[in-house]
Design brief:
Largest sheet: none
CATH superfamily: MetI-like
Helix content: over 70%
Strand content: under 5%
Radius of gyration: 22 Å
Order of helices and strands: HHHHHHHHHH
Structural class: mainly alpha
Distance between the termini: 14 Å
Number of domains: 1
Number of strands: 0
Mean pLDDT: 89
């Protein structure tokens, strides 16, 4: 435990040092090269944009977080639930995976405008797009975990006349738990990206709309400010998923 905490502190120090160096170099190059603000704003200009309108960015962030969380819950639930169904009915795996790959291969940037036309500019199209983005990684990871049970363990369950549902509940789900958390560490930041992509196609609020308005007006400081908030939120989402994984798996063991 102490070693893990020490490693975490060292990692955080390294990340903070790296980010600081990048920002300092960025600021220096912009000033030394006299780069126009409409091409690349300096970090200080971006921070100024944030501090000038903190409520504006906070409100946009909360909207995007709500859409991302809704899509994450729907996509993760559908992916994990379908993986459990496939483990109970292995004969449908080929059909399910074909359909899942078809969904994965469809460009979401092409679907998002259609959903906006059909469902309006509210949160529902964003949640659907985010759920579609989250669904496939969850399905694949959880299904891999459910199928990774040792054959001798399943043989023991059969000897005790356990039903497939009982094997799923008492063995497969616990084996798949680390795989589900691995998927969560991927999909939690990905959900934010999905929400922003959906907002770009039409939204009344959110970080995606902030970016779109800034891009349309060639006003890059607000755009970079929204990008910074999105990146920081993604890091926090990954960290929260990793913390939750450590807490649950430690309790499980």
């Amino acid at each position: 435990m102490e070693r893990m905490d020490s490693d975490t502190r060292h990692s955080l120090k390294f990340v903070l040092l790296f980010v600081t160096v990048v920002l300092v170099v960025w600021e220096s190059l912009v000033h030394l090269g006299d780069v126009p603000v409409y091409l690349l704003p300096a970090p200080t200009r971006i921070l100024q944009a944030l501090f000038d309108q903190p409520a504006y960015y906070l409100q946009a962030l909360l909207v995007t977080l709500g859409e991302a969380l809704g899509g994450l819950l729907v996509g993760a639930s559908c992916g994990a639930g379908l993986a459990a169904l496939v483990s109970l009915r292995p004969q449908i795996e080929r059909g399910v995976m074909t359909l899942a790959i078809l969904i994965k291969s469809t460009p979401l940037a092409a679907i998002a405008p259609l959903l906006t036309i059909w469902l309006g500019f509210g949160a529902l199209p964003k949640i659907i797009i985010t759920a579609l983005l989250v669904f496939f990684p969850t399905l694949v990871n959880v299904l891999t975990g459910l199928n990774s049970v040792k054959p001798e363990t399943l043989d023991l369950m059969r000897i005790h006349h356990a039903t497939p549902w009982q094997a799923l509940r008492h063995v497969r789900l616990w084996t798949a738990l680390p795989y589900w958390f691995a998927a969560l560490r991927i999909t939690a930041p990905l959900a934010l990206v999905g929400a922003v992509i959906a907002e770009w196609t039409g939204a009344s609020d959110g970080l995606g709309r902030v970016m779109w308005l800034a891009y349309a007006n060639l006003n890059l400081p607000p755009m970079f400010a929204a990008i910074f908030m999105l990146a920081l939120s993604g890091v926090c989402a990954y960290g929260l998923a990793a913390w939750l994984e450590r807490a649950v798996l430690r309790w499980n063991t």
